[in-house]
Amino acid sequence: MDKFSNKLQKLLTGDRPVTLQVIVDNFSEKSFGILFLLLLTIPSLPLPTGGITHIFEIVAILLALELISGRKAVWLPKKWLNKTLPNSLQTSALPKFIKIIRWIEKYSHLRSVSIQNNSLLPRLVGLVVLVFTIFAFLAPPFSGLDTLPSLGVVLLSLSFIFDDLFLSFIGIIVGVIGIGLLLLLGKLAFALL
């Protein structure tokens, strides 16, 4: 079986444009995890994005709600599914992120029964993704406070893809630390005003 990082690399370097529909078609059983990974990779990087990542976070919130409701397959409007991924994501962010994915892949092991085969676990993952993504969305632009909640979702996505429960725990810890920092700094800023 081809590794996930290799499949993603082939998809990015292939001839046809990379759309959300192409991703869903290529990674059908893992498409929720892949889409969360793609949508929150840029917000998880400690770069100022000026709020442009809010679009990605809104889509991730919709997908998390689908997962919570028990959907097994991704549903998005056809117009969204046919949109090509931003060039910066395809040529810059994701190729760099594939190196990290390869490193995680090397140490990741099947540490749980498939998350997708369990009826409760995907809903719990969806709930955690929803909470982390909402906090990433609420983080002030240019503050960098969306990084840790988004990184928590990225790690949860990888746990979903690799069926590695250990990665889920790491993702939850990272996301909770991010939410704690956001709340603490928000409280301090409010107190100063």
Extended strand count: 0
Major beta sheet summary: none
Q: What is the residue-averaged pLDDT?
A: 83
Tell me the number of structural domains.
1
Helix amount = 55-70%
The helix count comes to: 9
Strand content: under 5%
Question: Poorly predicted ranges (pLDDT <50, ≥5 residues)?
Answer: none
Distance between the termini: 57 Å
Structural class: mainly alpha
Shape: globular
Spatial extent as radius of gyration: 16 Å
What series of H and E elements makes up the topology?
HHHHHHHHH
What would you say about this model in short?
Helices cover 69% and strands 0% of the residues. The chain is mainly α and 193 residues long. The longest helix has 28 residues, at 165-192.
Structure commentary:
The protein is an all-alpha fold. The protein has one domain (4-192). Helices cover 69% and strands 0% of the residues. It contains nine helices and no strands. The termini are far apart. The mean pLDDT is 83.
List the helices and strands and how they pair.
Blueprint: H1 4-13, H2 20-26, H3 31-44, H4 54-68, H5 78-81, H6 87-107, H7 121-138, H8 147-162, H9 165-192
Helix pairs in contact: 1-6, 2-3, 3-4, 3-8, 4-7, 7-8, 7-9, 8-9
Key features of this structure:
about 190 residues; mainly alpha; 9 helices; about 70% helix; about 0% strand; globular
